[in-house]
Structure formats: structure tokens, C-alpha cells
Amino acid sequence: MTEISNVIFDVGNVLYQWDIRALYGKLIDDPERLDWFLDNVVTLEWHFQHDAGRELAPMVAELVAEWPEERELIEAYVPRWLETIPGPVPGSLALVEELHAREVPIFGITNFGVEFWAMFRPTAPIFDLFGDIIVSGAEKMMKPDPRIYQLAQRRFKVDPSATLFIDDRQDNVDSARACGFVGHQFQNADALRAELESHDLLGRR
């Protein structure tokens, strides 16, 4: 079994919480209307177009044309998007700092649109500790597409069998494993700490 010497992190809901409801819960008081709005108007599927490489302006314009009565709420999404990130996932950033202190090479693969990444990245200095981060919107390919893991292997110059990939989605982990990476489905920081310790990447407490 190859010794693990590199770590690749997902970002959303591994390092930082992300939830569209965190924004729109402030703007829509009625819980039933909030659920309807997130199920039908500003949906995850609509947002993921940006992660895949689409620009925000035409996405917003198309959605307003489809739901003109919801214009005000739709147009709040981009300028207030940082409010969809309530904060770091408890305990995760400390693990990154500990890995960095032990000189473990750290990388990222994130499904993230380029415009939102440009807004978010300056608020998150933890990424200064990363060797490189692949952003799906810039590459126009998203996890779990195998090509994004193949790109990571080339760009990060890592041996997949010596690299632990961490993601909260099982399909993303499965695809990484199929490309030769060692995978861990993130549940919480304590479980991840145990995984990292099992590979001797962290000092045991």
C-alpha cells in the first residue's frame, strides 16, 4: 500500500459551509414560500450552471425573464452571494493548518464559478496554504467528471495512489477513486482527523 503524502480538499461543506437558504432565509419570512422559491426559482441546478463555466449575467437575465415576479429576489443573489457561506466547517481549517505545519502538500478541487470564486477567495486566507486549486468554472469541467481528477494529477504533479482526496459527496469520491486516488467522504472534522492520523499525516493527540 502506497504511503499517502498529499491531500486534496473539496471546499464547499468540507472547509466552508455553503447553503443558498442562508441568504434567502433572511429575505423570505414564510417557510413554505422559501421552500417553493428554492425548489423552483433559485435552485441548485440553476446555480450549478455557473460552477460549470457559465457567466452570471445571462443566467440572471434568463431567470428573471422566466420569473419576472421574482426579479427582486433573483437579482439579490449575485451581490449578496457571500451570505450563502455562513462560515467555516467546524474544525476543518485547523486540520489544514496542522497539515501545512507538517509540510504536507495541500491542494484543492472545487466546483465553484469563477465570478463567485473571485468574490470568495479574498475572504479565505486559509487558501494561501494551498499549493494550487482547480476551480471548475475556470476549467469548464465539474466533479465527478474524471477529467478534472486527471487534470489534478497533471497539474499538481502527484501520484494518485499517494494522494488523499476529501469530498462531502460520495459520487465525487467514487470518481476520484476510479482515477486512482485514495478517497474519504467527509462527514465531520473529527472523522477526517482520524483518517489523516491513520495515514500518519497528523500527530496523534
Automatic annotation (TrEMBL):
Signal peptide (from-to): none
CDD domains named in the record: HAD_sEH-N_like
Pfam families, per the entry: Hydrolase
Tree of life domain: Bacteria
Protein name per UniProt: HAD family phosphatase
Organism of provenance: Alterisphingorhabdus coralli
Lineage: Bacteria, Pseudomonadati, Pseudomonadota, Alphaproteobacteria, Sphingomonadales
